[in-house]
């Protein structure tokens, strides 16, 4: 895919952001609060319109010119704040996610497949609002995975999750990329981003500050400018971890 956002109309939310990615990559979108991560993800999926000047291409086709059903067949999307669905059961909530999928991807087995992937089978009969925040996050991620689309767009997939489930979800997203999907995810945990992503896109005040391999993007200068932090890196057999301290 390639993305170029010159500007979103009448807004400075995103300006001059361009990057490319390909199937098989796990791309982390990082940046401080308000940097433009969610705006970028909604621009990718064609929801943030109108782009004043810009384009998003997948296999040389313009995503912005695709029909709604073509986009549903292309993207699995986890929003930052999913819409509320009232007092329905987890099972009904997931079934409602099957409705608009292409018929080939929407069989009853699909629900079982994602329930197993996220280990949420035990929650299926329970009312969704009765689950904890982290449990609900896993249900919403499960819904985003329904349909097995080739491009996953996840806005903070590990938000509200405990450490065990953060690692599980990051490993799952990594395995999707290893099996040929394109995964793009907004992430706040830079240690997890460095450990699991192939590529990072660092946004700062709506603009692209850096894009490339984690070690290159998470440089001392970029961390200072984008997050006002200084970091020590811890390298172990399990991977790298960042120990941040405030610069101001
Ligand atoms: N609907 C909107 N209309 C106008 N401006 C918006 C809208 N939504 C967000 N913004 C602004 O656009 C900028 C980028 O917001 P965005 O939600 O993309 O940031 P983010 O990097 O995802 O932040 P966070 O880490 O806090 O989730 C912010 O300054 C925000 O105030």
UniProtKB/TrEMBL annotation:
Domain ABC transporter, residue spans: 3-230
InterPro entries: AAA+_ATPase (IPR003593), ABC_transporter-like_ATP-bd (IPR003439), P-loop_NTPase (IPR027417)
Functional note: Part of the ABC transporter complex HmuTUV involved in hemin import. Responsible for energy coupling to the transport system.
Protein species of origin: Pseudidiomarina insulisalsae
Keyword terms, alphabetized: ATP-binding, Nucleotide-binding, Translocase, Transport
PANTHER family linked: HEMIN IMPORT ATP-BINDING PROTEIN HMUV
Keyword presence, Nucleotide-binding: yes
Protein name in UniProt: Iron ABC transporter
């Amino acid at each position: 895919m390639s993305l170029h956002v010159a500007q979103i109309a009448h807004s400075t939310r995103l300006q001059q952001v361009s990057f490319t990615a390909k199937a098989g990559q796990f791309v982390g979108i990082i940046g401080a609060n308000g940097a433009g991560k969610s705006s970028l993800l909604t621009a990718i999926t064609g929801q943030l319109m109108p782009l004043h000047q810009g384009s998003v291409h997948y296999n040389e086709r313009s995503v912005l010119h695709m029909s709604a059903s073509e986009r549903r067949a292309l993207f699995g999307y986890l929003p930052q704040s999913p819409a509320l669905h009232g007092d329905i059961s987890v099972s009904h909530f997931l079934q409602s996610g099957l409705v608009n999928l292409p018929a080939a991807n929407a069989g009853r087995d699909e629900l079982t497949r994602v329930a197993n992937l996220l280990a949420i089978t035990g929650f299926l009969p329970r009312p969704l609002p009765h689950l904890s925040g982290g449990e609900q996050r896993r249900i919403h991620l499960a819904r985003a995975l329904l349909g097995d689309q080739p491009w996953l767009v996840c806005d903070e997939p590990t938000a509200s999750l405990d450490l065990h489930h953060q690692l599980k979800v990051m490993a799952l997203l990594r395995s999707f990329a290893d099996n040929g999907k394109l995964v793009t995810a907004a992430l706040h945990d830079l240690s997890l981003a460095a450990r699991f992503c192939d590529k990072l896109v660092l946004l700062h005040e709506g603009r692209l500050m850096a894009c490339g391999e984690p070690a290159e993007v998470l440089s001392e200068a970029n961390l200072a400018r984008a997050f006002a932090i200084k970091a020590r890196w811890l390298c172990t057999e399990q991977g790298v971890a960042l120990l941040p301290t405030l610069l101001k």
